Amino acid sequence: MTELLRVFVLHNWNLKLVSLLLAVGLWLVVSRDPMAEIAVSVPVELHNIATNLEISSESIPQAQIRIRGRERLVRRIGPNDVHAEIDLSGAKPGERTFDLTAQQIRTPRDMEVVQVVPSQFHLEFETRLVRQVEVHPRVIGSFAPGLHVAKLLAEPSVITISGPRKHVEAVEVATTDPVDASGDMQRASFVTHAYISDPLVQVVNPQPVRVTVIMTRDQASASNPEQQNP
Prior knowledge:
Blueprint: H1 2-10, H2 13-31, E1 35-47, E2 53-55, E3 62-70, H3 71-74, E4 83-87, E5 94-99, E6 105-106, E7 112-117, E8 120-136, E9 139-140, E10 147-155, E11 158-164, H4 165-169, E12 173-176, E13 179-180, E14 187-192, E15 194-195, E16 202-203, E17 209-217, H5 219-222, H6 225-228
Parallel strand pairs: 1-4, 8-12, 9-13
Antiparallel strand pairs: 1-3, 2-8, 3-7, 4-6, 5-8, 8-11, 10-17, 11-16, 12-15, 14-17
């Protein structure tokens, strides 16, 4: 028996001692590193949406993820380390509710998802529509006496827009940023941009718009030099 104990206890005793010390050290490190929790707010990532679909929602769904882990690891967590993912494969036009569970949350290793808020969210889908609309220039300013706008030209005169069908169909025209045509002039050109007020409708390949303002003088003003030069 003594020989047996000597073989098992004393054989490679130095390696066994090192292992014991490492185990004790690891236990001390873990015991001094308590568990902690943190809440991280992240946008919900929507994957695999069909190319002919658009989401009719002005805001991107957000989720608050509460995760638990060792305090030293929790302190390093940032918003870019946590991902909430939803697979939209098979989505069709219409309304649909999606569940958001711990299984759809990606976190760093050794982290536990404790809570997901909200646990569900609702989305509405529409087919994508692409069409062209006219560009209407917007002119402001104080004109010289007797002058008024005779003609407005926009180049390009139409732009292409894209978005959820109902939203795109509701757009009548695109409007430019206001150009100031104040003063005494007959013709002037300005470079500006066209925009659509509906945030869900996008301008395809946006580019600057050149607005040309052509002024004309009232007949009475043209025939009365004193009125032209008060």
